[in-house]
Protein 1
Amino acid sequence: MTEKKNISKNKKTDVLPLKNTNKLWAEKIKTQRSKQPSINQFVEGIVSGDISFLSRAITLIESTNSEHQKKANEILERCLPYANNSIRIGITGVPGVGKSTFIEALGNHITALEKKVAVLAIDPSSSVNKGSILGDKTRMEQLVANPNAFIRPSPSGCSLGGVAQKTRESIILCEAAGFDTIIVETVGVGQSETAVHEMVDFFLLLKLAGAGDELQGIKRGIIEMADAIVINKADGDNEKNAKIAKTAFNRALHLYPPKETGWQPKVLTASALKNKGINPIYKMIEQYVSDTKHTGLFQKKRAKQNKYWLIETINQELKTSFFSNSKVQKQLQEEIKKVENGTSTPFNSAKKILPLL
Ligand code: GDP
C-alpha cells in the first residue's frame, strides 16, 4: 500500500498528467512557430541588411513545403521595390580553372571599395555530387569571413530549371538586402551556363592557357555568351602561354557577330592566386555597366531576360503538370510499347498523348 502510494506520488512529480503534457507541447509548438518571423519582420530585416533574415528567407525559397513557398513569394513581392540596384556578374569555367580563387580575389577587391558582394551558385549536379560547388567550406575562406560578403551554396535537389528559379529569386532578396554586386558561379558543364547567362548583366568565362590549342575543345556557345574571357593562372612559367592564349582568343572573338549590347568582348589575363590583374577586370565590368546604361541597353537586356524567364517558367510548369497527369502516364506507357515494337511511330503516339492534359 505504502509502495503504491509512493509510486503514485512519484508519478505526480516526475510525469505530468496527459492533459498537462499536451498543453505544454501546444505551448512549445506555439512559441516555436512564433519564432518564425512574420512577413513584415522578414521584409524589414532583409531591407535593413540583416544577413540572418536574408539566409532564412532564402531557406524558405528553397523549401519544398507549400506554406514556406507561399511565405517566400510574399516576401519576394514585398522586396521587389528594393531590388534591381546591382551589378550581376556570372562566372563560369571548368573545375580547377580557379573559379573560387578568382571569386575570392574579386570579392575582396570589391568589398575593399566599400561595396557589398553576394556570391550565389548554380550547380544542378550538387544534389548528386554533394557540394561540388560552394558546398566545400574550404572554398573562399577569406570571403566567408568578410562581413561585407554573403556566400550561399547552390540550392540542391531539383532540376536545373528549379535551381535557376531559386537562384533568381535569391538575387532579388540579396539586392533588397543592399548587396550591390551579385556574383553567380556555375560549373562549365551542361545547360547551366545558359541559365546563368540569362540572369546576369556581365558574363565572364575563365580559361587556362594551353600549348597553342586554346580554341580546341571549347564549346562555341560559351564563347558567344562571354562578355569577357579571363585567362587565369597567368603566373610563373605560365605567363608566356597566357599571353599567347590572349592573342588567340582575341583573334577568335573578332569572328563573332557583335553583341546586342554593343559591347566588344575583351580578353584579359589574371592570376587569382597572386591577386594580379583583378583591378583591370573590375574596371572593365564598371566600364561595361556605364556604357550600356548610357545607351539604355543595360535595362533592355534585363527586360529581355525577364521575358526569357516568363517563357521558361511556363515551359517548366507545363512539363511538370503534363508528366504528372495520371491519364498521360498511363497512355505514355502504352505508346512506349507501341513505338518500341514498331506498331506506331513516335510522332503519331505523341499526337495521341498530347491532347490528354
Ligand atoms: P575551381 O574548381 O574552378 O573553383 O578552382 P579553384 O579555385 O578551387 O582552384 C583550383 C586550383 O588552382 C587550386 O589549387 C588553386 O590554388 C589553383 N589556382 C587558382 N587560381 C590560380 C592562379 O591564378 N595561379 C595558380 N598558379 N594557381 C591557381
Protein 2
Amino acid sequence: MTNMNKQSFVDGLLSFIDASPTPFHAVANMSSILSDAGFTELDERDLWDINAGRYFVCRNGSSIVAFIVGKQPITETGVRMVGAHTDSPCLRLKPNPDLTTAGYLHLSVEVYGGVLLNPWFDRDLSLAGRVTIKTTEGIVNELIDFKSPIATIPSLAIHLNRGVNDGQKINPQTDIPPILMRAKKGITFDDLLTAELNKGRRRKISLLGHELSFYDTHAPALTGIEDEFIASARLDNLLSCYTGLVSLLDAGDQFTSVLVCNDHEEVGSASAEGAEGPFLGSVLSRILPDPESYYRTIANSFMISTDNAHGIHPNYAAKHDRNHGPLINDGPVIKINANQRYATNSETAGYFRELCRRAKVGCQAFTVRSDMACGSTIGPITAKEIGVRTIDVGVPTFAMHSIRELAGRDDAHALYKALLQFYKDKGTPGAL
Ligand code: CO
C-alpha cells in the first residue's frame, strides 16, 4: 500500500490550506493536483463517455467531485465515497461595501456561517475570492488573491471599554468592518479592485461582480513544544478535503472511488453545489445510467463524511460529556447523534473501527452533552439525498470556526491512513 509519510503529508496539508483562502481557490488547487495525477476534467455540459479511469468535475468553481472508475464490477463492489466541505466561516465583502467614517474607508461585510468573531480583531487581513469581469473575450470568472495584508479590524482599547474582559458583545454590522485606508476623495473600493485586476493587462477589464472574503495572512504552522499541533485557519474543513484528496490519489484502480467536496456546508448545504443539491447524485447517475444498476450499486456503497470534531478542551472540560471527550492525536473520531445530526449508526461505526484497526490508527467517539445542541455535517444530508450508508468522522480540534483553529499533526495523518484503507478495502465496503 502506498503510504505517504507523516512529514510530507503534513507539509502538503499546510501548503494546501495556505494556498486556499476561499472555496474557489481550494477547488482550483484540488483540480490542478488531480490533473497532475492524470485525472481528466469533465464538463457537466458535455456528453460523458465514462470508462475505467480517473476523472473530476467542478460545479460553480467551489464544489468538486473526483472519481476513479475501477476495474472491479461496480454493482458488486459498490462505490467508496469520502465527503468533505470546501467552505469555512468568514467575513464576506458586501456588493457595495464602502463606508467612510471619521476620515477612514472601511468595508461592510456579511458574516458567512457561524464565525467566532472575537479572534478576527487585530489580524493582518487579506482579501480573496472570485470576480466576474468583462474582458475582450466576453464575461468570465477569475480568481483573485491580494495575498498581502490590506486591512485590519482593530480592537477598541481597553481604556475605552473597561468591561471587555467580562464578555464582549459584537455587532457584526457596526463593529467589524475592516479598515482599508484613510479615505481619499473619489477613491472607492471598486476602483482599487479594478486597478488590481488590470495589473499586467493590455486591455482593461470592467468589473461586474465579486464574491470576496477576508482571511488571515498568518501562515499555518506547527505548534506545541513538540510540534504536535497544527494551527491554521480553515482546518474545518480543508484538512478533510486535502486528506480525502491524497487518499484518492493513492487509492489505486481496482474499486470505484469518489471524493466529493461541497461548498455551502457552513450555511446549511441548500444550493446547487451544496450537499443538499443534486451535484453528487447527478455524477453518480452519469457513471451508472441504468437505474437497476444504480440502485444495486448504491445499496453496496459506503460514504465516509469527514469533518472536524470537538476535542475536549482542558480549560473547559465540563463542556464535554465525560465519556466522550476526544483527545488530540489519539486518532479520528466517530461522531454519533441519536437525533441524526450525524449519520453514524452501529453498523457504519463498526466498519470504520475495523478500518482503523487494520490501518493501525486509534479511533475515538464523540457525542455532545445531552443538555447542549449538536452540530451537523454533510453526512446526514448526503445520506438522505443518495440513500447511501454513511458515517460521520473527523479529527478532534480546538477553536472550531475561529480564524485560527488547532488540530493534531498525528490525527490528520491517521485519518489519511484510515481513508486509504477504506479506498483499498476488498469486496463490498462494510458488507455484513
Ligand atoms: Co465543518
Protein 3
Amino acid sequence: MRVSVAAFAATLLITGTAAAQPASAHPNPVPLRTLAAGTGVRIGTAVDMAALAADTTYRGTTAREFNSVTAENVMKWESVEPTRGTYDWGPADDLVRYARAHGQAVRGHTLVWHNQLPGWLTAGVADGSIDSAELRTILRNHITKEVKRYKGRIYQWDVVNEVFEEDGSLRESIWLRRLGPSYIEDAFRWAHAADPKAKLFLNDYNVEGVNAKSTAYYELAKRLRAAKIPVQGFGIQGHLAIQYGFPGQVAENLARFEKLGMQTAFTEVDVRMILPVDEAKLATQATYFRGLLDACVQARRCTSFTVWGFSDKYSWVPGVFGGEGAATLMDEGFVRKPAFTAVGEGLAEGR
Ligand code: G3I
C-alpha cells in the first residue's frame, strides 16, 4: 500500500523524525542527486559490483540517487592484477561503463595502500625476490597502467590511502619500509603524468576534525604543494560511530586544506552503532551524517560527499566490528532511515 504524503507528514509531526519508508512503497519524490545539483557537491556511493550485478533494487537505487560512484573493491591492486602481469579490468570497466550510462562521475579508489595488495607482491617482498628497486618500478607501472586505462573518465583519484598512524607518524607499510617516505610524492607524480586532468587525493579515516593525524596530512600537503608536487585534494573517509561522539572542528579542518588551494571531499561516509538499532540511535546517526554533509556543503571547495554503501544489506561494518552495524542510509530491506532524509534535507538546504 502506498503511504500518502499527508500521512507521511503527519508521522513527521508526531515523531519529530522521519519515519523509515520502504523505497518501493514510498519513492522519494526528489532523488538525492537532483537535490545535490546546484550545491557544488556530488553525492556518491561506493559500489559493490557483485550486488550491482545481482540485485535490481540495489542497481536501481545506485542509478537513481547518486551522481558519483566509487569502486568499493574492484579498482584495488589485488583485484586488477591478481597474478603478476595478468590483469583483470573487467569489473572496474563495468563500473565505469555503468557510470557513463547513468550520467555519474567516477572516483578512483585506490592506487597505493597497505591492504588488498596482491599475494605475489607481498610474498615477493617478504622472501626477498622483489628488491626495493624492483618494487619501485612495479609501483610506478601499476599506477601508470591503471590511471592511463581510465584517463579522462575518473575525476578524483585516491592516490595514497591511509599513510599515517593515529599519532601522525608515517604508517609502517611495505612502501615506507622499502621505498622510504618519497614513495608518496612519487605516486602523485606518476599519477599526474598518466592523467594530468584527474584531481589527485590523499585519503584517510579519523581525519574529520583537527587532530594529530589530520595535522600530519596538513603538514604533508603544505610541503608537497610548496614543492609543486601535483596533489590537489584531501579525502576524509568519514567512518564514524555514534558511541564515540561527533568529531570536533570539522569546518576548520576543511578550511585549512582549502586555504592551501586544495579541494576536499568526504569519501567513505558511514555511521555505525552498537546493535540493536533503536529510534534514538537512528536519530543520532542522522545528525552525524547531516553534520558531515553540512560541513561539506558549507565549505568552499568540498566537491563530493560519498557514502560507503547505502544499504546495510551490503555494508562492510558488521564483518569487521562485531556487534556493530546499521551504518548506512537504508536498512537491509532498503527502507530509508532518518539519515537518508537528513542527507536529502541537507542537500536541499544547501542549494
Ligand atoms: O573477493 C573475495 C571473494 O573472492 C571471497 O570469496 C570472499 C570471502 O571472504 O572475500 C572476498 O574479498 C573480500 C573483499 O572485501 C571483497 O568483497 C575481502 O575478504 C574483504 O576483506 C574485503 O573487505 C573490504 C575492505 O575494504 C578490505 O580492507 C570491504 O569490502 C571494503 O568496504 C573496505 O573498504 C575500505 C576502503 O577501501 C578504505 N577505507 C576503509 C574501508 C573500510 O574498511
Protein 4
Amino acid sequence: MRKFKTESKKLLDLMINSIYTNREIFLRELISNASDAVDKLYFRSLTDDSVQINRADLAITVAFDEAARTITVSDNGIGMTKDDLDKNLGTIAHSDSYEFKAANAKNEPGEEKGLDDMTDVDIIGQFGVGFYSAFMVGKKVRVVSRAYGSDEAWAWESDGVEGYAIEAAERAGHGTDVIIYLKDDAGDETYGEYATEYGLTDLIKRYSNYVRYPIQMEVTKSRMKPRPADADDEYMPEFENYTEVETVNSMVPIWKRKGSEVSQEEYNEFYKTDFHDYEDPARTITVHAEGTLNYDALLFVPSHAPFDLYTKEYKKGLALYSSNVLIMDKCEDLVPDYFNFVRGVVDSADLTLNISRETLQHNGQLRAIARRLEKKVKADLAALRDDDREAYDKFFEQFGRTLKFGVYSSYGMAKDILADLLLFYSAKQKKMITLDEYLADAPADQESIFFAAGEGLEHLAKMPIVTTVLAKGYDVLLCTENVDEFCMMALGDYARKDGDEEKSFPLKNVGNEDLGLTTEEEKKEAAEATEENRELFDVMAEALGGRVEKVVVSTRLTDAPVVLTTEGAVSLQMAQMLKNAPGAEDAPKSQVVLEVNPKSPVFDTLRAAHAAGDDAKVRTYTEILFDQALLVEGLPIEDPIAFSQAVTALMK
Ligand code: ADP
C-alpha cells in the first residue's frame, strides 16, 4: 500500500469528517472531472492527427447497483496512466495552487497558517472538493482507468484513510470508471438513496444539467405489452418494465442560447421550474458578455414577492456556474441587497470550480460581473418605468420597500442607482409618481421637494401641515410606510438632470423643517407676535411640562388652531417608531414645537383668558389643544381619560 502524504492525509481526514453537510455535490465533482477528461481528449484530437475520435461518441455514464450500494461514474475521455493515478489521486490539493498561496499570504510573514487552524469550509473552498468528495459518501473508492493510446488499464483503490493501492486491471477502451462503495447508513445519515435511479437523476438534473456532454444512465420504463392475438373481450392490457439508456442532462443551457432563439414561454418554464415559482416572471434579462469578462447571465424579476422576502430567513443570490457546472446555488455577492429579489443564473468559464465563499469576496472578476449585472437590472427597471407604467406600479408594489430600504441601509450610497426608481404617493395627483415627475409638475419657483410622513393616506392628506402647503400650490408626497421617512432622510436631496445641468432639490418634511414658503417679512411678523405674547406662551409651555421645547406663533397655518412641528432630524412619527423599537431607552426624541395660529379665534380666547388673569383656563385649553394636535398627527395621547374629562368640562 502507498501512503498518502501527511498533508494530504490531514486534509482528507478533515474533509471526510467535516461538518460539511452538502455531501451530494460529490456527483457533480466526479461528473465535472469526467467532463474535463473528455474535453482533454477532444482538444487533443484537434491538434494531434493520431488521435482519432468521433465527438458524438464522447459521453459520461452514471450507473448504480442498489443492492451492492455502488455508484459508478464513467467517461471515455483521456484516461490515466499508472503514473497519473499515483500523482493525481495520491496527493490531495496541489499545494502550489494559487488559492493555497492566497490563504498563506494572509498570515503574518514567517507564520504559516497551519491546516489545523483552517475550517472545513476553508479547505473545501481553497482546494476544491474534487475527486476526494467521493469519500464523503463512500467508504471505499476504486478508480479503473486506461489512458488514451495505452493498452493497459490500472486500478487505484483506497478507503480514504491511510493510503491507496494500485494494481493492474482490465478496461475495454480508454477512459475512467470511478466506483464508489457507499458508506453504511448510520442513524440519520443515510447513503443508500444515492444508489437509486431517482436519487441520481435528481442530482444530475440539479447540479450537472448543463454539462456539455451527454450524461447517460440506464433507466427503468414501463410499457404496455402487445395484445395477444387470441385476446378476447375480457382482455386487460398488461404492463412490463424494461430498461433504456437515456441522456439525463439537457446539455445546452438556456442562458447560453441567444435571446432571439428562445421563446418567452421557454424562459418562463425555466424560471418556474428552477426557481420554484408558480407565476411567470415579470421581467427576463439576458446578458452575453464577451471581452475582458466572459459570462452569460439570465436574470428574472419575479411577479410577486416571495412570502419570506422581508424576513431574516430570506436568502438572496444568483446561481453561479462555471462552464455549465453549478458552483453555488445562491451566490450572494452577485446581487446587491436592494436587488435581492432578482433570481437567475450566471455562468462564466473564467471562474474556477473551487471557488469558495471566502475567495468569492476577493474575486475581482466576480465583483466586476456583479457591478455590470446591477447596471443591467437598473436599466431594465428604468425601461419598465418609462415604457409600461402599469407594470412598473405593480413591480413597485411588490418590491418598492426593498428599494427604499436599500437607500436607507446604504446611508444614501446607493441613491444614484435607486433614487429615480422610487415612487411616492402624490397628494396633488393622487397617484404614485417619481421624484422627476414631482419636479416636472412643480411651480418654477419651487426649491424643495415636500413630503409628509404618517399613517394612512387619507389621514395624511387632511393634516393641516399638508393642506396648507397644497393650498399654496405645492405638491406633497405622502409617505405611509415605516421605511419612508428614513429613506427620505438618507436621500437628503434629489438631483434632477436637465440636459447637462443638474439641480439639487432638498427633500423636506412638511412637519419639521423650514419649508422656505414664508417671506422674511412674514417671519419677522411672527417672531414679533411671539415676543408680544411671551407671557402667555410661557404659561402654555409650562402647562405642557417637558413635552414641548417652546410655543410660537405659526406662519404655516390657515384653519387649524395649533400644530405640532419639530426641530432637528427626529420627526414626531420617527420618534414614535423609535419608541417601539428595541433599545428604545436610548432612542433620540424629537424637539417639539407647539405652533399657534394667530388667525384662529382660539388664539383670541387664550389671550383673553390670560389678560383676565385666568391662567387655569389657559392651562386646561393648552392641554386640550396639545392632545388634539397629537390626534391629528395620528399619534397616541398620553392620558385619554384626562383629555375626555377636560372636553366634557368645557361642554358643561
Ligand atoms: P481537480 O479536478 O480540481 O484538479 P481532483 O482532485 O478532482 O482535482 O482531481 C485530480 C486530478 O485527477 C485531475 O486534475 C485530473 O488530472 C485527474 N482526474 C480526476 N478524475 C479524472 C478522470 N475521470 N479522468 C481523467 N483524469 C482524472
